[in-house]
Amino acid sequence: MSASAIYILDLKGKVLISRNYRDNVDMSLIEKFLPNLLDREEEGLTSPIVQVNNVNFLFVKHNNVYVVAPTTKNANVALVFVFIYKIINIFIEYFKDLEEESIRDNFVIIYELLDEVIDFGYPQTTDTKILQEYITQESHKLEIAPRPPMAVTNAVSWRPEGVKYRKNEVFLDVIESVNLLVSSSGNVLRSEIVGCIKMRVYLSGMPELRLGLNDKILFDNTGRAKNKSVEMEDVRFHQCVRLTRFENDRTISFIPPDGDFELMSYRLSTHVKPLIWVESVIEKHPHSRVEYMIKAKSQFKRRSTANQVEIIIPVPPDVDSPKFKTAVGSCRYVPETNCVVWSIRSFPGGKEFIMRAHFGLPSVLSEDPENRPPISVKFEIPYFTVSGVQVRYLKIIEKSGYQALPWVRYITQNGDYQLRTTL
């Protein structure tokens, strides 16, 4: 990635702040950026790139400002956009939001940040935890510039040195989201598990952590294929993980950042049995009323319980006089989104509940069943992973030899979880 400069413009195209990094772009060309963009939009062309005199202006609009990066080279466009969004996130971390007012109030620190995150058009330190150690809101008041932390020059750039805690602890959450689409005939059209491992680390010094999962490739390589294992796809790690070690022996070894971070993410394209199954029976009485019978069944083991369950049932836009009947949970009609929300605080495994709804229906229009929105479900099941991913061990190695407490939680929740309704 190489950006020749960075501009931040207001909605009228006026430059609020800019920094030239390579001196290979006529900085006045930015005056033609917004007129060109508006002309393209009038012609119905939408693109995040505007070309002016062989210069490509890549931009992102955020609130009431444009963040623009011009380049004359055949740059990697995806990386440039990733970097623009990274700059936006850095400003949000510092100023709570990026908008015209926050830019005008923070010119000095913005210039300091732009000088630190880019050198000759190439990204440098973009980790806000590191930046905030030596670029502060009051940095322009300091008489002596503070020395950059060791993390900037250290190979472990994501963790400062000298971290100390009275009580050393590690919290690890395995969180899985279920994406599911079920047809009106009851067939599963799409099922996917998207998972991540999030950590909260309160450890002194420079500890090394080793995490073991029931990884299928590891189990196959070590002759433990009969054990319950999981084959994860699209695995992505935080930069702290030693990728060579993982590729060699599937060990997840790393020196963690301090505090909260996402260690890894993964995906499983596998057939998922719907954890909460919903059936609907809809009876329409023309020009008078419509009645719903909704049956919800939890299809997971009895020892687990889904919390904060919401079953969202779409209804016609002109219904009135709602009446509900259910032995479990509560119902409310939400006219703004044309739906009924059936809320169940606690839904144990292996249970089945029924809700009935009655509405007046003054409309003479007939609803097309093909275009009826699906029922969607929200839930969270603690102490449970639908994929079967398990943390086998979490070892903490630190030269001082202190004892640390690892805490592990499992949570399964809904992602895009939808069931099409039947008449």
UniProtKB/TrEMBL annotation:
Coiled coil: none annotated. InterPro entries: Adaptor_comp_med_subunit (IPR050431), AP2_Mu_C_sf (IPR036168), AP_mu_sigma_su (IPR022775), Clathrin_mu (IPR001392), Clathrin_mu_CS (IPR018240), Longin-like_dom_sf (IPR011012), MHD (IPR028565). It is a peripheral membrane protein. Keywords: Cytoplasmic vesicle, Golgi apparatus, Membrane, Phosphoprotein, Protein transport, Transport. GO terms for biological process: intracellular protein transport; vesicle-mediated transport. Residues 167-420 form the MHD domain. It comes from the Eukaryota. Its main location: membrane. Signal peptide: none annotated. It is found in: Cytoplasmic vesicle, Clathrin-coated vesicle membrane; Golgi apparatus. GO terms for cellular component: clathrin adaptor complex; clathrin-coated vesicle membrane; Golgi apparatus; organelle subcompartment. Subunit of clathrin-associated adaptor protein complex 1 that plays a role in protein sorting in the trans-Golgi network (TGN) and endosomes. The AP complexes mediate the recruitment of clathrin to membranes and the recognition of sorting signals within the cytosolic tails of transmembrane cargo molecules. Belongs to the adaptor complexes medium subunit family. This is Adaptor-related protein complex 1 mu 1 subunit. It comes from Dugesia japonica.
